[in-house]
Amino acid sequence: MRLVRALAACAAVLVLCALVGGWYLYRDLSGSIGTSRALGDDAPKSVGGDTNILLMGLDSRKDQNGDDLPPEVLDKLHAGSSDIGGYNTNTLILLHVPGDGSRAKAFSVPRDDLVDIAGHGQDKIKKAYGLEKARTEEKLAAQGVRDKRELETAGREAGRRAEIETVRDFLGVPIDHFAEVNLAGFYHLADALDGVTVCLKHPVKDKYSGADFPAGKQTLNGQQSLAFVRQRHGLPGGDLDRTRRQQAFLASATQKLSSAGTFTDPVRLLHLLNTAKQDLVTDKGWDLLSFLKQARNLSGGNVEFTTLPIEKFATHRGEDVNIVDPAKIKRIVADALRPVRSTPPTAPQDAPAPSPSKAAPAPSAPVIDGGGIPCVD
């Protein structure tokens, strides 16, 4: 009996040590994830327990310090030279998590929507980050700043702030948190999950993204996942179909997180956080552990995805753009988030849009059903 008690006591001590060690390891890992003050302390906030999170995917071939990704990584990403892509936010998704635990909603903003960007006039919404980053770095360089790391850090903070403010004004709702990830993030996330399952209506082969998949349901590794979410050539809806692929990837990834027991397995959770620190930047003060627990409710199909509509296609400064109706966009988002429990910022005056050249298809995204993986083009 004494031996049993001694073993039980030892087991209890070991469990306690594991829990304490796991907590300190989590604190260490979460502390090493990049953080930003771009949101600002005086930014409008949601009320009533609701949370709005802006997910920004950078089309950048550089790491968080502005250094080129290693050539072997670029080769795996099939992303071309590190000079390509710049700092465009090619993925913009607003995730609304209701405080009452009801179904979350995710709004995808097409990257080529023509909007007002403070200090830069009208341009593609994806360019707010890069435009402000470049202007800030030029201004600091003119003041005598020469340190590359200092310029990169200041430029990125300015870019994040500009992108957040542009999306916030465009949608007319507060943004409480944000997460920024580069191209390598999709690659590392899929690998950390041992692959992500997707479904294609038709076989595809695209030399630009590296996508080469048969039709049907299949599990993609990190390299394949990046090709899947980047492909737009050869798809009937072009960029709009790429947006739906991003939605399908995220829905499948959250489903995989839950089914793999990630949220209840400390080892898996710590591995995921260790992976995230390579590619992720979030706003300072965001308690990721609490959100990961909350994120369990977002898996299993508990997110409704919507691609915000565009009215027409046109050209602006020699580039193809999407003409949108800002007032209509705000109404769609507000109606979806009713009852209104937030304090949205005042929307700026919308400038006249350029003359449209052709009508755009009405984008639509299926509700992601937890009973299966939706097939996309």
UniProtKB/TrEMBL annotation:
Ranges for the region named Disordered are: 339-377
Compositionally skewed regions (Low complexity) per UniProt: 356-366
Q: Which domain of life is it from?
A: Bacteria
**Which InterPro entries does the UniProt record give?**
LytR/CpsA/Psr_CW_biosynth, LytR_CpsA_psr
Domain Cell envelope-related transcriptional attenuator span(s) in chain numbering: 88-258
Classification via Pfam families: LytR_cpsA_psr
> Compositionally biased, Pro residues: which spans?
345-355
Its family remark reads: Belongs to the LytR/CpsA/Psr (LCP) family.
For this entry, the protein name equals Cell envelope-related transcriptional attenuator domain-containing protein
